[in-house]
Structures are given as C-alpha cells and as structure tokens.
Queue: 2 jobs
Job 1
Amino acid sequence: MKHNPIGVFDSGIGGLTVVKAVKKMLPREDIIYLGDTARLPYGTKSVDAIIQFSIEDTQFLVDRGAKYIVIACYSSASVALDVIRKEFSVPVIGVIQPGVRKAMEVARTGKIGVIGTSLTIYSGAYEKAFKELGARAEILGRACPLFVPLVEEGWVDHAVSRMVAQDYLEPLKKDGIDTLLLGCTHYPLLMKVIRDILGDINYVDASTEVGVELAQNLRRLGLQNPDGMGSTSIYLTDLSMNFKEIGERFLGEPMKNFSRVSLKRYDEKSSHGGKEAK
Amino acid sequence: MKHNPIGVFDSGIGGLTVVKAVKKMLPREDIIYLGDTARLPYGTKSVDAIIQFSIEDTQFLVDRGAKYIVIACYSSASVALDVIRKEFSVPVIGVIQPGVRKAMEVARTGKIGVIGTSLTIYSGAYEKAFKELGARAEILGRACPLFVPLVEEGWVDHAVSRMVAQDYLEPLKKDGIDTLLLGCTHYPLLMKVIRDILGDINYVDASTEVGVELAQNLRRLGLQNPDGMGSTSIYLTDLSMNFKEIGERFLGEPMKNFSRVSLKRYDEKSSHGGKEAK
C-alpha cells in the first residue's frame, strides 16, 4: 500500500496549489490529481450536489489505488468531508482543518478573518472546525464570490480587483482582525491586492499546512513511499480553453502528464466500492 | 403533436428570460424548461463538453415530448446548434440567428458590436451567422467574462460593474459601433451600466426576437397549440442556493412548478433516440 499514490481532488485546477505544496514536503510520493473541470465551480452548487460530486471524485481516485485522499476543494471540504470519511475506508484530509490549526497558532488577538466562496462561508464549516479544535477566537467570515472570476480573468493586480477587495475586506479591517485565513485555492494569487488593504497581519494559506499535516499522517500510518518517483498524473473531466496555462500558474511547473476522463455516476442505490470493497 | 410543449434549455436559469419572451408572444403554449444548474456555466467549458451537455439537455426535452427545441444558452447555440439539428428530428431554434437578423435590420452604419462569454465570442458563431445572412457590416466581438458573475453577485448598478464595463466596452465605443448585440442571457440586467458607457445606440436582446421567430415557425409548420394552458414546468439539475430568487428575476413572475432531475448520460456508442426514435 505504501507504494500507492496519494489522490488529490478539486472542482478544477486551483487544487494544483495543494499538489505543489504536497510535492515540496513529500518529493518521493506519486500523486494522482482529479480536477472536475466539466462541472466547476462547486461553490455555487447545492450541498447535495457537492456531496454527490465529491463521492464520485473520491471513487475515481480510490479505483486508481489512492492510499490517502486529499480534498483540495474548499467547498467540498466544507460540506462533504464527513460523508467521504464515512463512505470510504481510505484516510482523508481536507483543506479546512490544517488551515484552522495554523491560524490558531499564529493569531495574537482574538479575531480571525476567514474568506471563501459563499458556500464555504455559509456552510459554517470554519466555525465548526475552530470550535472543535477549542479555539476561543472570534471568527469573522466573509464571502468573496467575485475573487475566483477575477483570478480566472487574470486581473490579479487590476484596479477592479482592488475595488472589489476593498468592498469585501473593509468590514474585516474595521473589525481589527490580526489573522486572515484564505479559504479558497484561488485567493493566494490575489495576495498583493489583499495585503494592500489589510496590511501587515498574518495570512494563512492552507496548502502548505496540508502538506505538513499529510507528511505527519503518512509517517504515523507507515504509508510513506520509500522509493517513489515523485510523479504527478493529472486527470480532468474537461480540457477547457487555457486549462494548461492556468494550471501551470497554480502548479508552478509544466503540466506534462494529463488526460481527460469521465466519472462513474454515483447512485445512492448502487454500491460504490468504498468500505465494502476493502 | 401541436398539443405538445415547447422545450427550452439553458446551462442555468438565465434562459428564463427567453421563456418570458416566448410566453409573451405565445401565451397558449405549454413550456418545459431545463436548466443544467449542476454543470453551469457552459461558457468556460470546452466545445466537446458543451456539445455533449447540449445533446443530453435536448434528449431530456425530446423524451418529454417537446415539439420544438429552443436553445436559450448562447454558448450552446454558438457551438452545438448544427450537431443538435443533425442528431434530432425535432425542429430547433438557437438564440444566435434571431439576434443577428434583428441587428442587421436596425444597424445604420457598418459597425455592429457583439458581447458574450469568451467561448461565444471566440467560437466565431456570430461572424458566421452574419456572413450566412449576407451582412456586410463589420462585426466587432468582445468577450465580457466578468459580467455573469457580477450579475449573479447582484451588482447590476455598482461602481465595480461600471469600471468593468468601461474596460470591456471602451474599445467598441472607440470603434464607433451603432448597434450592440447582447450575446448572453445575463447581460440585459446590466443595461443601465452598458447604456451609460455606449450611449444612445441600438441594443439588441435576442430573447424577444426568439419569441417572434418561434411564433412564425410554429405557424408555418402548423404546430401552434390552439388550446394550451400556457403552463411552465421548470426542471433543474441542481437546486442551488438562491436559484428561486434569481430565477424569478429572469422569469419576471413567481416560479411555481419546478423539480430537480438527473440527465441520462450521452454516450457516442449508445443510441439516444433522436432521428431513430421518430
């Protein structure tokens, strides 16, 4: 099992930032990545739809022998983590908890800001995670639905992005947060604009933390690959315009090994080879 | 057959503007509407994906007895109209040609602007349609990918929307267009902002034209319903947050009759009951 790959999924290609962080911490591990580009974004869909999509994504990775599942999509991690853990026997890590742990570690005062898609923020997943980890800080969530389209338009340092960020972040600034958790794969690309508004506070990008925590977990479970090739296989449900250009921006290196795939549909009546198959 | 409903599909709920226009022209016709909200938007997906989705959408409507198919999604109409016509025997109308006809009718000088999603603009569907209809006008296309997210954020008269519109539309203004074709279901909601920049030129929203042309075609084919109830049944592949509120903004009346459905997957190897079934 230790020679098997780590499986990472996201609604699109933004999750390649998580792959980049994992590869940095675990250069010998082989990684299979699934981006559900045919149905992206997840953040505007219903909770039921995201849970169904997330089960299908996980099943795809499990079918390819994934020894560990990383949910790199914040919307999925917000609403589907518990279901995935219940339905599959493979260990699973989401992007929510590692970021929350780091935020609790670095926050000095009692106010932590969290930004994400509407779904991520309104799901209450962050409040729940902070509470479960015993945080006493006040958590201030703010949905920033235009940040993803702005990044995808390439306007990462544009007057419009500054104006949108001003609108979204001003309330967090007034509230005096000292730490901001970036709860979406695309937001790190807007760091310059965000920092211009919120100034010199702590910024937490969960990608790095996921890498650190995953490395610890693999060691603890004896699942570290002693002699892997560090390969990355990228599967996408649609090869849309510019996917390679945008993907390489997230991955930080050329995308060499990718293909288009169809996912098996999850049907509540059918077995999906999770717990049972093991 | 004349008692059968008209089938309308879109990637989401924006196509309800077309339903509204069709109901105005044809108050007795029953309408079944399919919004593929689980996979929206189409405009950022590949041509292959949009063709596959459009076949699945059409099949759903044909299975429910649709006597005429209206493609209310500009991205679908741009790249999938010919395939749908080839694969199904039911008559089909898209949103591209009716708008083009109207633009040719009202344009005074030789310059017509067209705005749409990146896919719609880069597909060249508008240039092709203008050419096929014998237009001599110069067609100036401009992709406006942030307009849809701005409308969905509800920022229809916001400083940010004005700044984005300025960025997108300034080149069309400089070029001196006298007619602007709105090539996306969401754009009519931004009319105030657009008019503030481009001033008193001709604006063409294809929804109305689709209604007019559909009425003519039904009459010509003897497919008009003499005693329909004017009912509207709305099927969505996902019931996402706020869908009802946003849908009613497009439809212009309360959404009473809606349900969530799953689509049969189109597989090139399988029969999909189109020409063969008739």
Job 2
Amino acid sequence: MLPFARITVIGLGLIGSSILRGVRHHMPTVRLTAFDADPAVRERVVELGIADDVPDTAGAAVIDADLVMLCVPVGAMGAAAEAFAADLPADAIVSDVGGAKLSVLEALRAALPNALIVPGHPVAGTEHSGPDAGFATLFHGRWVILTPEDAPEAAVERVKAFWEKLGSNIEIMTARHHDLVLAVTSHVPHLIAYSIVGTASDLENVTQGEVIKYSAGGFRDFTRIAASDPTMWRDVFLNNKEAVLEILQRLTEDVTALQRAIRWGDGDTLFNLFTRTRAIRRSIIEQGQDDERPDFGRTHE
Amino acid sequence: MLPFARITVIGLGLIGSSILRGVRHHMPTVRLTAFDADPAVRERVVELGIADDVPDTAGAAVIDADLVMLCVPVGAMGAAAEAFAADLPADAIVSDVGGAKLSVLEALRAALPNALIVPGHPVAGTEHSGPDAGFATLFHGRWVILTPEDAPEAAVERVKAFWEKLGSNIEIMTARHHDLVLAVTSHVPHLIAYSIVGTASDLENVTQGEVIKYSAGGFRDFTRIAASDPTMWRDVFLNNKEAVLEILQRLTEDVTALQRAIRWGDGDTLFNLFTRTRAIRRSIIEQGQDDERPDFGRTHE
C-alpha cells in the first residue's frame, strides 16, 4: 500500500526535482504532477520527463492531488499556497520541505485555513540548484523532520510513510524546536560559510587570486555551502531570525574565548577543544551521516 | 637530473609519510631516510616499507642527507632541528612543511645558524593523521609556498624542483605574507570550524544526538577540518597569532554586519553576499582546487 496515489510537487529545484525522481523510482505507480511558477523550469521538467503532467497553473496542478508537496523557498510558501487554495481537494494533505518551520506553518495556515497541513523538512541537499541538480537517492539515509503540531495522526502517518519510501528516517518535533536545532546544524554554519567567503574576498592585502590558489588549506570547504541557492538562504535567515541570532550569539562568545586563548598563548584550551571536536566527527561517520573516506572522498588524481 | 639524491624526512605523520610515498613514486632512485621522535611511529614506517632506512636518532638520520625535510608540528621545529644540528652536513639544505612561516624561520635559524634553510609549506592535507594516512598523490595539483627570504637562489631552485617532481605548483613569497594569506585560507577557517563544532556540542537545549543526526544540513562539513590533528593546529595558532587575530577581527565585523541584516530583515544585503560567494566557488573549481562533483563527490548510495 502506497501512502499517496496522486502527488503534486510545487517548486522544481534541487529538492522538488529530487522528490519527483525519488517517487518515480520508489513508487513508480504514483501519478506525478509538477508545477513551478517559472515557465522555463516547467519546460525543463517536461524535457527531463520526470513528471507525468506539468500544467500551466498551480490550481490545475493540485486539482486531484492527495498530496501537495511545496518545495519553494520559505519566503514564497504563502504565495505558492494561495495560488492553488481555491482548487485544493478537501482531503488532500499539504506538506512542504522548508528549512524554517514556525514561519512556514503560519504562512500555510493563513493561505489554507481549512487544509490538512503536515509541515516537514528533509535535512538533505547539495550546493547545486535547479531541476537538473536533483537525484532520486538524495534522501537515502537522511533525516526528515516533521512538525505536525496539531495535524491529525493519520495524516502524519501518511507523510511519514511517504518519506520512508524515499529512504529517509523520520523524527517528529515541534516547529520551534526544529528551528533551533536547524539553526545549529544548518543555518548558522551556512551563515558563517557565506561570511568567511565574503571576508576573504574583500581583503586589501590578500588578493582573490591568492584566496583561490591556496583554498585547499581549508577555505574551499566553506565555499561549497556558500555556493548554495541565494534566494533559498536569504529566506531561511529572514524566517528563522530568533533562533539564528541566538545561536550566532553563542558562537560569537565561543570564538571570543578562542581569540583570547590565542592572544594569551593558552595552548591547553585550544588543544582540549580540538580533541573534543574529533569525537563528534567520528559519531557523524558512525551514524552514516557523512562519508568515511578522507577529504569527503574528493579525488586526489 | 634529480634535485636531491639522499632525502631525510623528519616527522612521519600525514605530510611526512606522503612525502616519503611521493618521492618513492616520482623519484624512485632517491635514497630515503626517515625519522620520528616516537619509536612506535618509526616502527610503523618500517612495517609500511616506505623508507630505505629508519634510524633511531635524528643525528644518524641526517648524516649524509642532501635534503632534510622537517614535517613536525610548527611548535616542535626548533627542538627537532636542534636534535640533528651537530650531524647536519654543511651543504645539506634544510626545508620544512610548517603552516606558519615567520616563527619557523626564526626557530630554524636559532637551531641551525649556519645551515642553508629554505622554508616551505605545501597547502595540502586531509583530516587524517599519522603514517598510515599519507599517500603519494597528496601534493598533485596543489600549491607549495616557499618563503626563502635570503636563501641562495640555487638552493631555492632545488627545493622548487623537488616539489615540482611531487606534482605541485610553486609560489614564492615572504614569510610575513604567507602567514597572512594562510590565516585567511586555512587558519581562520580551521578555528571557526573547531569553534562551531564546540559550540554545537555544548548547547543545553539541543542535544549532541540531534546535532549528529541533522548534521547533513551543513554542520558536517565543518566537522571534517575540525577533526584535524590537535597538536598541529594548536601550534599553528600559537605561532601565527598576529595574522590570525587580524583576520578573525575582520571576520567578526562581517558576521556582525550579517547579524544586523538578519535582525532588521535586510534581505538585499544577504542576497547580494550569497550571490557573490557563488562566484568564488566557481573559480576554485575552474582552477582545479576542488572537486567539481556536487557535495565534494560524497557518495549518495
């Protein structure tokens, strides 16, 4: 038994197009409808042949769906939902993949006051964007967080079963806790990566050419996540302000302590931290959340 | 013509053992001598068979060398050099791979006042440590920075030819400039990575289990370089204090500006930065300094 028979994906970037491919691969009998507000993206998805139908309006796309999965930037969720509100079947479940959950829940509830809403967030991705960047195995072994708040349990179970079919593990928590946890494991790391790449490219006494040449010293690692979709990430920060600022404040305090340790030559503080952080890496690899090969498996000729 | 015929490597971790393997592969006729202050490491190198000779003292290791390559943590360079100072042939060239160059130059000059010293730094590595972690291709396509200051040109040319044989590109600059450039491209990124991993594991309202589970949101990228050798990195920060603190100060200012943009909902500032940083990633890939495959080439089943 499949949890859904007619799935509509709205927003056809990396995540949306990966869901299309994942459903096609893992649930081949499901009827897949796809919509994107950008006609060029719709056309590309038709060319890629990863959906059964790609109508020209959001309303037409949801008309007989039993699951509508919103995969647009978090700041666009409300408008994307409004665009199909009038055509949404009463028993359809609406879910999403947004990286900030409190604000999305609010936007979806306002746009679809009577809908069955089960917000979600697959913690997966790459630095590439657009319908060509997606792939069916993106969610394999990754965690999907559902923040159903007061959604009916049967609806939550179906969304859970959907993600399990795509190869994911599921966790349920409140939207507020999600936003704090993701501020730590995703949002602040992205902000710092963007910031460090910006700082490095703005220096007067080190050229951009030098930064690029010697990036293998560690800097290049930060450039990967700093190459992620700008619209998506702008929206995440604007929609998870409180938690991001809270964690950023904590990080700033900890960086200040390290700064002080360096200034005063306190090697023990540095050494103790650097030893502790190794253990976290080991746990991440043991739990299958990163590649165990050195250097992420980068090629060395 | 090979630049050196009898090479001694002192310090047999990731870099030292990669040099042994690289020389064996690219210059198979060179006689390779290896030494490490730790008897267990020497024993392991004997087992690995990656050197012709592994004597029990630093003095015995350099006695007929024409190149002595120091691959110990930067804080141990002075003591490592003193240990063989009395046995160093007058015409041998001493070089090193330390990540901070002003302090190493000073330490080597003090320990070996009459030696031909050509300091260097291969900008290459992985998060793994020890003699088993090394591999012959580690330096392929990477940049090696030489900071010869007033070393004779003939000596510099030979060290340059040595690294070219190992597959590297060479740049020459002052030790001071090196230390600033590497603070940007390596030292501060490592410090921030260590710091963010430390912060994430110390929160009261987010568990370490959660941090690990949802690390694929970006956090896990930071854990790789935060798994690097603690001794090596403690020494780098203690020996490149001035430049690290200068760049850290700049980064702090830039993070503060982003923090302000988030607080006041200034999406344009965020979007503009996030667009700029994408271009740097593209240049790094175009110049062969990172893997062009998405997600660094990580496996997705």
